[in-house]
Design brief:
91 residues, alpha+beta, HU Protein, Chain A, 3-stranded antiparallel beta sheet, two-stranded antiparallel ribbon, 5 strands
Length: 91
């Protein structure tokens, strides 16, 4: 399911206009992204949680040349599936 399909499903289920449904989806995902950008954890009970992992700097290798390269510290978003979602998918 992509964003447009999600908007369409919300429009049909809630009997609202497509523009209102798009606005709700935009607010929802925008709020999640803003919270994660601040380093906060986003948890939707029964579905999943999103969090940011911090990685320290390390020495890696350029696969093309084999030269040593220093990898800068970084933050990456992660998704963790909830117990209820696991059970629903794995019926």
């Amino acid at each position: 399911m992509n964003k447009l399909e999600l908007i369409s499903a919300l429009k049909n289920e809630a009997n609202i206009s497509k523009s209102d449904a798009a606005k709700v989806i935009q607010i929802f995902f925008g709020s999640m992204a803003d919270a994660m950008a601040k380093g906060e954890r986003v948890e939707i009970r029964g579905l999943c949680s999103f969090f940011v992992k911090n990685y320290k700097s390390y020495t890696g290798r350029n696969p093309k040349t084999g030269a040593k390269v220093t990898i800068q510290p970084k933050k990456l978003p992660f998704f963790k599936c909830g117990k209820e979602l696991k059970e629903r998918v794995d019926y």
